[in-house]
Design brief:
The protein has 293 residues and is an all-alpha fold. Helix content is 81%, strand content 0%. It contains twelve helices and no strands. Helix 4 crosses helix 5, helix 4 crosses helix 6 and helix 6 crosses helix 7. The radius of gyration is 27 Å and the shape is flat. It comes from Fontibacillus panacisegetis. Keywords: Cell membrane, Membrane, Transmembrane, Transmembrane helix. It is a multi-pass membrane protein.
Length: 293
Amino acid sequence: MKMLWVWGSLFIFLVLFWGMTYQRSAGRFRGCTDMKMEGIRLQKMAPPMLYVLEKLKISQRFPILFYKVQHSIQKISGDRRGGEFTLLFLAEMLNYSWLLLVAGCLMTLLMDGEITGIVIGGILSVLLPAALINDLHRKVVKREQAIHLELPELLNKLVLLVGAGSTVQQAIRQCLDRKQEEEQHPLYGELFRMQRELEGGYSFQQALEGFSKRCGVQEVSAFTTAVLLNYRRGGNDFVLALRDLSHSLWDKRKSVSKTLGEQASSKLIFPLVLIFLIIVILVGAPAFMIMDM
């Protein structure tokens, strides 16, 4: 009975803590419920945990964790609201941990004080946030790989169009006109945004620099630097500069394709081993049955 009282008290404390924190933070962090970020599912529950993060001063006490997450989120969601999105992502992690602890306490109470429920909930409350951070890092790597694979193709088209007499801006616009259906692609999505900035009054240099920062990939930075240094010259010098860059980008694309192929091969190992074990069992079972007879 004593253990039941302990777990019941913990359950009540967790529920009351969240409820009281929500009352204090609902009005203060009301705007966070309107923010849109891919992968966030508990946005309505974010205010209490945002309040906790503010009181804990997470960016000062855990700067490495905070800026690592912020760097990844800025690459995915852009750099304008990177800090706000980072806090929203951390609040999502805390909400998952809170829900798992509450569920663990409830399981323990339903199992008459058996600590298995709270142990499982406690372990998952630590592992799940780590898994979310790992998934965020995987999304960043996947985004960079998509850019590495598509950038050489784009550069080849620009070389052909500029060599045919188009300006850089005209060549980029013509490439985008043929990629209207691929606006969700990381590279073309940023190029469409750059095009809208140019139409909104940004200079070509400002829009191109913003495009490079949002992509956050070294090869894109090299591409924008080459364009900014040579696009005013035009002619053969500019085309030759882009062709030299294209060779190095194709080498990078080959290495990325090789890495993806190796990853695909490694993912097939487990199914192949499983199929092999099933075949061994199917072939060997009759033999053992005959031996027993």
